[in-house]
Amino acid sequence: MTHAQLPARSVTALVIASPFCMKLETYLRMAGLQFEIPAASVRAIGGAPKGKLPYIEDAGRTAADSTLVIDYLKATYGDPLDGWPITWATSRARWMPRCTPLSPT
């Protein structure tokens, strides 16, 4: 899978120019999906499906717009992020009000 975005400021920097590119890259990393980011330039945006980044190319298919790409990835590969925090979040949400005083004494 290829994830197209503008490159970070340096090789070691994790700064991504676009919040939408960051959103998609974060999802890809958290979901554990293998991807590569090719060397991109501003001229590469012209080849993007909607004329903007991010977009992905996966198995001969191209998807654009970070939200639509994530929906495509969930439909194609399943959603490994669905469900895992719910038990923890639910138990914490029930525990906190019972164990935390409402006002300092």
Keywords:
105 residues, Glutaredoxin, three-stranded antiparallel beta sheet, 39% helix
SS strand fraction:
5-15%
Order of helices and strands: EHEEHH
Structural class: alpha+beta
The CATH C-level class name: Alpha Beta
C-alpha termini separation: 56 Å
Instruction: Say what the CATH topology is.
Output: Glutaredoxin
User: What radius of gyration results from the CA coordinates?
Assistant: 19 Å
Mean pLDDT: 76
Q: Which range best describes the helical content: under 10%, 10-25%, 25-40%, 40-55%, 55-70% or over 70%?
A: 25-40%
Side by side, the strands of the main sheet go 1-2-3
Question: What does this protein structure show overall?
Answer:
Strands 1-2-3 form a three-stranded antiparallel sheet, with helices on one face. The chain has three helices and three strands; from the N terminus they run βαββαα. By secondary structure, it is of the alpha+beta class. It has one domain: Glutaredoxin, CATH 3.40.30. β2 and β3 form a beta hairpin.
Give the gist of this structure:
The chain is built from 3 helices and 3 strands, in the order βαββαα. It is α+β, with helices and mostly antiparallel strands and about 100 residues long.
Topology:
Elements: E1 2-4, H1 19-31, E2 55-58, E3 61-64, H2 66-77, H3 84-99
Antiparallel strand pairs: 1-2, 2-3
